[in-house]
Each structure stands twice: as C-alpha cells, then as structure tokens.
Write a structure and sequence with these properties.
57% of the residues lie in helices and 13% in strands. The protein is built from twelve helices and eight strands. It has three domains: 119 residues; 143 residues, Serine Threonine Protein Phosphatase 5, Tetratricopeptide repeat; 111 residues, Immunoglobulin-like (Sandwich). By secondary structure, it is an alpha+beta fold. Helix 6 packs parallel to helix 8, helix 7 runs antiparallel to helix 8 and helix 8 runs antiparallel to helix 9.
C-alpha cells in the first residue's frame, strides 16, 4: 500500500507540473492585458497629436478625442479587475481538473482492470483441460450453427470434422468429413485422408475396407501428399506387405519435415527392415514470403458491396485446410498488392517454408466472416516453390453459390 501511495504522489506531482501553465497564468495574464491597454492608450494619444499637427483635426476635437481615450482606459481597467479575478478562479479550476484527472482515470482502471484482476488471473493459472475442451466445444457448436444456415459449405464441414476429432468424437468427425467430401466431389486429398483416419479410429484402428479405399482415392489425386504416403504405408503394413510399406515411407522420407517427425519416421522404416532415404533438394530455397497481386474481374466490380472484407491466404494444396499465412483487408482499390509471410501464420510452427506448393486464394466476404458464404467472390491459383519466388497474380473471377 505504501508503494501505491508513493506512486499516487508521484502521479499528482507530474500532473501539477503539466498543469503549471494554467496555475501560473491567472495574475500575470491580467497584468499583461492592463499593460496592453496602457500601450494602446499611449498609441492613440500619439495618433491624435499627429493628426492635430498636420491639420487633420482642430485643437478642440483633439481634446475631445483624448478625453474619450482616457475614459475608455479607465473603463477597461475596472473591467480587468473583475475579469482577472474570475479568470483566475476558472484557470485554477482547470488546473485542478487536469491535475486530478490522470489520477482518477488511473484509479478507475486499477479498480476494474488493474493489479487485482491480474492477481486473480495468476492465481487461477493457465486454462485447465476442461476449460480448453469447453472452448473447443463452443467453437464446434458455432460451426454447427453456421452449417445449419449454410449446409452446402464443404469447408465448414471439414472444419467441423477437425473440431470433433479434437473432442475425441471420431464417429462424428468421420460423418462431417464424409459430408465435406461429398460436397467437394471427393477432390480434396486431405479431407479423404481425414475421413479415413476418423473411420479407422472409430472402428478400433482398423484401416481395412472404407479407410483403405479413401486413402487409395487420395493417393490417386496427390501421390506425394505426406499424409497419404504415411497412411498408405500403414495400410500395407497392416495387410502384411512390408515391402510396399517400406517403399511408401522411404518416399515420404525424401520430403522436408520437422526433425522430430523425421526421427520417428526413420525409426519406423528401420523397424520393418528398411533404410531411410535422404531428403531430395528442391533446387530452390523455400520462400519466406509471397508477393500476391489481387485483381478483380471487371464483370464483378459492381457485385462488391460497401464495407466488404478481403481475405488473402495461402494453403498447402495437399495438406490441411488451415492456412499457412492469411491477411484480412478492406475490399477496395483493386488491384491490390498483398504480402504474405510467416508473421501472418495463424498456426504456430507451420509456415510457408514447410511446403513445396501453395494454393493462394483471394476471397471477398460480404459478411466479414472467414468461412466462405453464399454470394462471396473468390479466385485462386496453385503455384510451386520455384514459381512462388516471383509475384503471383490471383484473379477474383467467380461467385460462390
């Protein structure tokens, strides 16, 4: 408490120091006005004398004007006495307000948001597992409510599947990913793998049957997808085909991946009698940033409502749907130059350098939501790592239904 009182005293001293111009001006300001009136009186007397000397006015008129100037000076002097007293009181009130306002604001903030709240948060500690689960469940409920309004949103169903997997609801996740795959025409390899994974978890880690068929479809679309290669190896190993499992995992080992993931993969390859392969150089460094030019098709310019939001993001075409980097901007003044880098990454530990190909999407949202909605305008392009070294042009040329 002594420390708080000392800080309050220092704050009061600082505020008074800042308010010193108001405190110092009350009496000197009155004196300055009186001095100015006297100077004006003397100047007027000089003017009257000059006019009389050059014959502009006669002596009688000059005397009358001198008397009027003297009377005006006396009147101003009397008024300044009263006004100075009033101004002094007003200025003192202003100075006192300025001095006390910072303390009042600081005290109010401290009472509502300050140290006591921080102490409660520290005492409470980090969120518990139950609190984290409640947060995920709230997010899942929000996505489910969105899908009730827009049941044709394939990406929304995929996000719902991710949320249900985080809640250990494998059956519910499989159903959500199945809906996403139906709506997308089974063209998203990562969603196919996610559905197969969820089905396998829901049936005691059995990869045969429907999960194996889903992994096979994903492999036909994206044979180098890391998750496809991993689960294809597991399917082969579960079927007793170690040679096929080794071949798929050795192919996977040639790709870039985090050191801990590589260590676990190499241990699996050695466990089934294989030798891990060295990663293959891509021949070009991974870009730390993407320069994107966003262009709006001329026939869609009238379709952009006032206050619309532009989302520009990069994803791995063969990876999870979550973006590697994303920006949110006002949707106007096209064409736009947008820079994406790892500072825009919404997921910790996964950035632009983690993949070799990019799907760059620009979407104009009419409701300000990141999830695609009916009537949104969108365009996208897929580029590899070498092409991403140069500016990438994305044309918004279609309306979402």
């Amino acid at each position: 408490m002594n420390a708080y009182l000392a800080m309050a005293a220092l704050a009061l001293a600082a505020a008074v120091w800042l308010a010193r111009p108001w405190l110092a001006r009350a009496l000197p300001a009155t004196l300055r006005r009186r001095r100015a009136n006297v100077d004006a009186y003397r100047t007027r007397l000089g003017e009257i004398e000059a006019e009389c000397r050059f014959g502009a006015i006669d002596a009688e008129t000059a005397a009358t004007l001198c008397d009027e100037a003297a009377a005006r000076l006396l009147h101003e002097a009397a008024a300044e006495t009263d006004r100075g007293f009033g101004d002094g009181r007003r200025r003192f009130g202003v100075a006192l307000t300025v001095a006390l306002l910072p303390i009042a604001v600081a005290g109010g903030w401290y009472a509502t948001n300050g140290s006591w709240r921080v102490q409660r948060q520290i005492a409470a500690g980090p969120p518990t597992a139950a609190e984290q689960t409640a947060q995920v469940r709230a997010a899942v409920d929000q996505i489910a409510a969105h899908l009730q309004q827009q049941p044709g949103d394939a990406q929304g169903w995929a996000l719902l599947g991710v949320g249900r997997m985080n809640l250990d609801d494998a059956a519910g996740a499989a159903a959500a990913f199945h809906r996403a795959n139906v709506l997308s025409g089974q063209t998203e390899p990562d969603w196919l793998v996610a559905e197969g994974e969820a089905l396998a978890l829901a049936h005691g880690h059995d990869l045969s049957g429907a999960p194996a068929a889903l992994f096979s479809k994903a492999s036909a679309i994206a044979p180098d997808n890391p998750r496809v290669l991993w689960y294809a190896g597991l399917v082969a190993l579960q079927a007793g085909d170690r040679a096929s499992a080794r071949a798929r995992w050795q192919r996977l080992a040639q790709q870039d991946m985090p050191a801990d993931v590589r260590k676990a993969l190499e241990a699996q390859i050695r466990r089934i009698g294989g030798t891990p392969s060295l990663p293959v150089s891509t021949g070009s460094p991974a870009p730390a940033r993407l320069e994107v030019q966003v262009v709006l098709a001329p026939d869609l310019r009238q379709a952009v409502p006032d206050g619309a939001t532009l989302f520009v993001f990069a994803q791995a075409p063969d990876g999870p749907p979550m973006p590697l980097a994303a920006r949110r901007l006002p949707a106007h003044d096209f064409p736009l130059q947008v820079t994406l880098d790892d500072s825009n990454a919404p997921m910790g530990g996964r950035g632009l350098a983690s993949v070799n190909r990019y799907r760059i999407t620009a979407r104009i949202s009419t409701n300000g939501q990141a999830l695609p909605g009916h009537g949104d305008l969108e365009g996208s392009v897929i580029v590899d790592r070498a092409q991403a070294q140069q500016p990438v042009k994305v044309v918004i040329d279609r309306r979402l239904s």
